Amino acid sequence: MAQLWQGLTAEEWDTPQVVVHRGRLQDNIASMAAFARQHGVQVRPHVKTHKTWEIFAMQQAAGAVGLTCAKLGEAEVFLQRGVKSVLVAYPLVGTRKLERLFELMTRFPAAEVQTIVDSPERAAELAQAAAAQGVELPVWVKVDSGLRRVGVSPGAPAAELVREVRKLSGLRLLGLLTHAGHAYGAASYEQVAEIGAAEAGCLLETAELLAAEGVTGLGISVGSTPTVKVSGAVPGVTEIRPGNYVFYDATQVRLGVATPEQCALRVLTRVVARPEAGRIVIDAGAKTLALDKGAHGSDAVAGHGLIVGHEGAVIERLSEEHGVVRIAEDSPIRVGDVLEIIPNHSCPVANLTDELTAIGEDGSLETWNVIARGKMR
């Protein structure tokens, strides 16, 4: 913990506080950028993980070609800061969503706003709306590589949707896109790697079907931090969209994707009670740590985060403002101590706080506002 505190005492921290180790953050960003250069792919990071301008600025300086987000509200706050290329990788359904999409395109004419289609009906709706606005909307065909969430099946169904999109005026087809989020439920890194290979493979096989009839030059975009260094290394992939890699978390550690030392985002929390020898209460509850025990429904992580330096301690349950932790009866932890937690899932933790405290290697502190916090629409 000393490497984070740099001379500040426990009394000087107001807890719970979400902190980011700047050096580790920069190392994570640099590592992904180096991977992308090595394999000749572009990085379009998903900013839902951090939602802060300072971190995206680091990603952009490292070569990111734009950003990925899930919501128009997220897109708007980054477009306001001058971002030139934004992918809203989420189905935009309904009149109000389309109005807002075209409002952004009108307000920020120098920026490219991309989105996805996953069915002929949605493609036709977007095309009609774009044509009515007199614009050409760049779109990706979203393919389901196994998450069973959003996307058309790979192979013949995805190829058919590509054909349909190419017929529609108002749309400009960018390529094929997928997200292998089901990797979060993997039992081992070997299984993660298998999913990553299949993630890229299903897009490239679809592209081969289309190439046989003369449709070439399609972009191939993959995402998911656990799989990205497998799928992103497959020849033919053109773009990667990882998000969690900037911070990592206990879930990535469980999957074998990262080490605890690489986890840049931590929660500092204070022990507020020790009602009995084997139980303490901390001031970080569900409103700080979130309730995730692994992304996409995975429940494979024990407890609600890793307590650094106290690996035997288990955060057994959370209420809104309290965390209940099981410890050894002879543990030296005392009321008033500040503990450091690597959360299970760093993305919702960042979204639950107004600001991140960035800690430099020299102990300097900066405050980074979470500018897209709560942008759920």
TrEMBL record:
One of its GO terms (biological process) is D-serine catabolic process. The keyword Disulfide bond does not apply. Keywords: Lyase. The keyword Lyase applies. One of its GO terms (molecular function) is D-serine ammonia-lyase activity. Residues 264-360 form the D-serine dehydratase-like domain. InterPro entries: Ala_racemase_N (IPR001608), D-amino_acid_metab_enzyme (IPR051466), D-ser_dehydrat-like_dom (IPR026956), D-ser_dehydrat-like_sf (IPR042208), PLP-binding_barrel (IPR029066). Belongs to the DSD1 family. PANTHER family: D-SERINE DEHYDRATASE, ZGC:162816-RELATED. This is D-serine dehydratase-like domain-containing protein. It comes from Tumebacillus avium.
